[in-house]
Backbone:
DNA sequence: TATTGTTATACTCTATAACTATA
DNA sequence: TATAGTTATAGAGTATAACAATA
């Protein structure tokens, strides 16, 4: 998307009620804020997401990480390539099943993950600045229900 | 994104609180529903959006349409190419400024636009099915504020 | 000179198919 | 045979640079 700054202000009336359009532009604004916030660390939002999954799954395989993120295993290859080149992860064959690659954070990787999580939280905060706390809570819950409808009870919101 | 069906159900705990992740997956689910709904018409959601803008701006130029959609003018070229090939739009040089291409809907294009709008509304409806009406209203307003923050008064929501 | 459409090119994100090593 | 990782390739969606026609 072209930046259209300083006029990112232009909700086209005939599209402003279409959810797809709103999702795209809202997501794009969040991405811009997040990229900017993470830039000093040299990782993208997508790469940070990978780091967060690895941090939570300390000896996961590439396939395991990909599956948890909803990505293809071929996509994960270059993602890990890049992170390895940056020095934030290491990979080596699992001794107990040499088909698998175990992926672990380096100590620098742990630091990057910690700092990245904090920076991206700040970016989220400024992204959400136009909303009240109540609306933010509703938004989060709504997004969870819409993204993963079958994983929740249908206790509809108030 | 791989479909991961029937388990699109998998909100990874370490990512489920990240807005970027939720936006991506919610948007992806909406896109899937919309594509499926529009498939009989032979147009994508993106192409329908172009048709809607043209319908609203009956003698717009390619650049005008692109700008209104937040796209680049080079992106619009192939978008219009495809729509012209499908027979839903026509383009010709503006007699009063022959640098511009005027883009208009054909009669088939008007029909496709009308039907597409209805079908994609149905898709939105089933997408939103997990939410109450109240939450849906909050979501729509929140997305508008988040996507185009500077175009609204900062009357924060209740 | 500036603007519109176009072409060529490239980058990101993603997938499918096919290969290799291992099980 | 089946699985994990890899490579090659392709297809959306998008942008930048450069060019032609027109203003």
Residues:
């Amino acid at each position: 998307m072209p930046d259209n700054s300083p006029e990112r202000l232009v909700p086209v009336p005939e599209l402003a009620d279409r959810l797809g359009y709103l999702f795209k532009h809202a997501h794009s604004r969040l991405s811009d804020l997040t990229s900017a916030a993470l830039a000093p660390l040299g990782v993208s939002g997508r790469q940070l997401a990978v780091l967060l999954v690895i941090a939570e799954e300390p000896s996961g395989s590439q396939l395991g990480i990909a599956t948890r993120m909803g990505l293809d295993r071929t996509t994960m290859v270059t993602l890990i390539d890049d992170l390895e080149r940056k020095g934030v992860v290491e990979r080596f064959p699992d001794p107990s099943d040499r088909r698998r690659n175990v992926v672990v954070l380096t100590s620098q990787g742990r630091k990057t993950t910690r700092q990245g999580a904090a920076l991206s939280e700040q970016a989220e905060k400024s992204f959400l600045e136009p909303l009240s706390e109540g609306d933010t809570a509703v938004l989060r819950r709504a997004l969870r229900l819409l993204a993963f409808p079958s994983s929740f009870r249908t206790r509809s919101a108030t």
Q: What stands out?
A: Confidence is low (pLDDT under 50) at residues 153-158 of chain A. Chain A touches chain B through 69 residues (CB under 8 Å). Helices of chain A lie at 19-38, 45-56, 62-69, 73-85, 107-127, 133-147.
